[in-house]
Design goal:
eight-stranded mixed β-sheet, 18 strands, 39% helix, 16% strand
């Protein structure tokens, strides 16, 4: 039976040291789980007192392995959410840490689910999340899903790394796994079983590409999987339900995220972090959202949150750079709508005037335009049925409060170009249908016509089309006289 003697003795000049002296042996099998957790917190490898979290993780790893060998299954189950791994090779009391690390390299041993996180979409958000996850202690295995062999060739040419630049300092990170997102029609039926099931998926493609991107890998997602939509705009979930996962009983769990970090692209696999923000995360109610953001009552599927959702939320919130936080569904919805209102004003106006965010400020004419747009947006948001009954609803989504947020964000990001303007200048399809278009659709559902937003939506589409034709050298067709 394994025994560990680690009762501390503190005296005089050694009050900041732990002495692993000859004390009465203490068997792990005789300790209760709370005591084991306390002991895991006080064990330090160097004799010098330290608050290094990596040493704490090492202590937990050793205690867990010893507890398993002692038969303390209760402690193992209660502490199974502690991630194990890392570079430690120390062996204490006959416990081999290499054995633990190998056994849990890809499997989260409390649930049997894979620790691997798949990221679909390598825009600014996808690169930033992948780069941040790779930098935490004991990072999860990360697989980047690439859509096309052209991107795979660029990945190999760039050194197979992701670069995030901050304060003119480059930070290259490697170690990512790569897979091509192969559509099911291009896969031989006999080879379907060779593809790993995806349990944890982060979707960060542009909103208009969400359905096509998920359709390529839907056959690899199980009903117990979790999909995190980390995108700009709203309304993608309803579209995915209609066109990809139209059967509620086999539909994965949905999570949504609201990101406020400022990012600017440099190249395909490099971005600049222009401003720190936060990420709000939450599981969507009832696993999914139906039309009008109302849960589908006829589904026979249980409402329990699967382990993959808890694991994904826990992993993202323990990543310091992301500054992620878990939110209740209603709090997450309000945060989404606030960002939607800001994007519905800043993004299209910067496209139409081809300017930076800060150039919209200090201009009386632009202020009048903003307030006209906000009068419609505020009325729609305050009239949404899912928000009725909330305290301070009229204050939080009032035109003046939304204008205050817009001015603050435009001031903070005054030197940045909006993501929609970047898309237009790169001749890509914009997310206007999922920003202004979402407000227009929700307004029509409750009898409000958003004529200003409707006009601005088509102005953005028209400008995008004009620039695209100009770049392609196309001339407008004229009827012969």
């Amino acid at each position: 039976m394994t025994h560990i003697a680690f009762l501390p003795s503190i005296s005089g000049s050694e009050k900041h040291r732990w002495n692993y002296s000859a004390r009465p042996n203490l068997s792990l099998s005789t300790l209760k789980p709370p005591l084991l957790r306390i002991l895991a917190r006080i064990i330090r490898w160097p004799q010098k007192w330290s608050t290094d979290n990596r040493r704490v993780d090492r202590a937990v790893r050793l205690l867990h392995t010893a507890a398993v060998r002692e038969g303390s299954s209760q402690w193992a189950q209660e502490n199974a959410e502690v991630d194990v791994g890392g570079p430690a090779k120390t062996s204490v009391a006959g416990v081999d840490t290499e054995l633990v690390r190998n056994a849990t390299a890809t499997t989260h041993y409390d649930t049997g689910y894979s620790r691997r996180i798949y990221i679909l979409g390598l825009g600014n958000i996808g690169k930033f999340v992948a780069h941040s996850l790779a930098g935490i202690p004991n990072p999860p295995p990360i697989t980047l899903l690439l859509r096309g062999k052209k991107i795979l060739k660029e990945w190999n040419n760039c050194g197979r790394s992701i670069d995030i630049v901050q304060h003119k300092t480059s930070d290259l990170r490697t170690g990512f796994d790569i897979e091509l997102a192969i559509p099911p029609e291009d896969v031989n039926p006999s080879d379907l079983e060779t593809y790993d099931t995806i349990h944890n998926l982060i979707v960060s493609v542009k909103a208009p590409n969400t359905v096509s991107a998920l359709s390529q890998i839907a056959y690899r997602l199980s009903p117990d999987a979790t999909i995190l939509f980390l995108q700009n705009g709203m309304g993608m979930v309803e579209e995915v339900n209609d066109k990809v996962f139209n059967n509620p009983d086999v539909r994965p769990t949905y999570m949504a995220g609201v990101i406020t970090h400022g990012l600017h692209p440099i190249s395909r696999f490099a971005s600049t972090l222009t401003g720190h923000g936060t990420i709000g995360l939450g599981v969507l109610p009832g696993h999914y959202i139906g039309k009008g953001s109302q849960s589908e009552p006829n589904s026979s599927r249980t409402r329990a949150i699967p382990p993959s959702s808890r694991y994904l939320l826990r992993t993202l919130t323990r990543t310091p750079v992301l500054a992620a936080m878990g939110l209740a569904p209603l709090d997450l919805l309000q945060m989404q709508l606030e960002k939607l209102a800001v994007n519905a004003v800043l993004n299209p106006l910067t496209v139409m005037f081809d300017c930076k965010n800060g150039e919209l400020l200090g201009n009386f004419a632009m202020t009048r335009v903003m307030r006209l747009l906000l009068s419609e947006i505020s009325l729609v948001l305050r009239s949404l049925p899912e928000l009725q009954g909330l305290p301070n609803l009229d204050i939080r989504f009032s035109p003046s409060k939304l204008e205050y947020q817009i001015v603050g964000i435009a001031t903070t990001t005054s030197g940045n170009h909006s993501s929609m303007l970047q898309d237009v200048n790169a001749f890509r399809i914009t997310e206007i249908d999922y920003i202004s278009g979402y407000i227009i659709r929700r307004g029509e559902e409750i009898g409000i016509k958003c004529v200003m937003n409707y006009m601005l939506l088509h102005m953005v589409k028209g400008r995008n089309q004009i620039l695209g034709r100009r770049a392609a050298g196309l001339l407008p067709l004229q009827k012969a006289k």
